[in-house]
Every structure is written in structure tokens, then in C-alpha cells.
Amino acid sequence: MSRNPYVRPVSTTTWYMRNGRYKVYVMRELTSFLVMFYSFLTLFGLAALAASAERWNDFLASQQNTGMLVFHTLALLYFMFYQTFPWFKLAPKAMPIHLGEKKLPDSFIIIGHYVAWVLVSAFIFWLAGVI
Amino acid sequence: MAIAKKAVVWGLFAAGGTLTSFIFPALIALFLLIATGNIPDGLQFEQIHTFAASWLGKACLFIVLFLSVWHAAHRLRVVAHDFGIRKDTLVANAVYSIAAIGTVLAAFYLLTIS
Fold first, then answer.
1. Half-sphere exposure of A100 (CA within 13 A, CB side)
2. pTM recorded for the entire structure
């Protein structure tokens, strides 16, 4: 081996643009901004809820505009396709389930996650009085 | 001891990832519904206030917010590194401070609702 191996210079700011997998990784990690954004949006709502009925209604009114409608629609699609679904896809690798000598097929775990997700979402919609 | 601590932190991070993956699509959908002007019954003041005033409701909201902000903070720290920001201590202090503020605010607001 050479004493001075050539190290290809790699940009620290745009390295992920070289490879599709890296791009997907960066796209996925950017969903953490959405997690922070919606956590704090919920906190703002909670602050209004803690203050008074009037403040809560003001909060609801402040959220009703086309800008937020477009943002939430894009955020929902982006979050599902880059956070929720990849997370389910990774689940069998993160926590493989062994049944004695055999391993539970990956597809079982992934389908199980989708079923649980539908049930959890339905429960939240039921709690909120949507369904 | 170091390993035990790491397991707790990693466990919370993984729990946050699972929780946000499962819950956030529905949460965003609720905000989407609000944006359209169709406020569901459960989000009218009386009902949501009753929910947040109950101990079960408080516990649910706190756990979701607590795990979400810490999970996001940890990932944002890595994202900063990925985008070439190499001041890790500064970034870590900033993002974990935001998570800490979020946690304290969540606890404070929830305890105020009765």
C-alpha cells in the first residue's frame, strides 16, 4: 500500500449528490425538520388551549388558509414516503423476530406495521371525531 | 454503566422514530383538515380541553411531544453534520436546548390545563 494514498476530495456540503442512495438518505433525514415543526405547532396549540377557549378558537382560525393547506398536503405526502414507509421497510432489519430456529418472514413484519399504522391512524381520527 | 446509558438513549431515539412514523401522518392530516376549515368535533374547545385535562390525555400528549422533539433533535444534529456544519458541540447544544424547551413547555401547558 502506498504511504500517501490518493484520497479523492469529497465535498462536505454536497457529497450526497453523487449517489441515489445518499440522496434518499438525506431526503429521509430532512423529515426531522417536519417532526420539529409539527411538534412546536402542536405546542402552540397547547398554549392556546391552556389559555382560554377564545385563544384556542383564534389558533384554529389562524391555521385556516390556503398556504397552510398546501404546506400540510406536501408535508403529509413527504412524511409518509420518506419517513413512515421507509421506517416500516427497515423494521424487520432493526428487530428481526425469531420463532425457534426460523425467522419470521420480513414481509410479515412489514405488513404488520402497515396494519398497525392504519389502526393507530383510525384511532386518532376517532379520538378527534373525524370518523 | 456507559453501555446501559447508551441503551436508554438509543431506546428513546428508536421509540421516537417509531412513534413519529405511526402518529405524525394522522397529526398532519388533522392540521390539513383544520386548514380546510372543517374542524372535527373532537377538536372543538370543550372536547379537546376535556381530553387534555384528563391524566390519560396529558400522558399521551406529553409522551408524543417529548419523544418527538428529542428524536428530531438528535436527527437534526446529524443533518447539520451531513450538510457540512462541523461545529458539533454548538449544534448539539442548540438542538438539545430546543428539545429541552419543547419538553418543559409541554409539561407546563399540560399542567396548566385542568
1. 0
2. 0.92
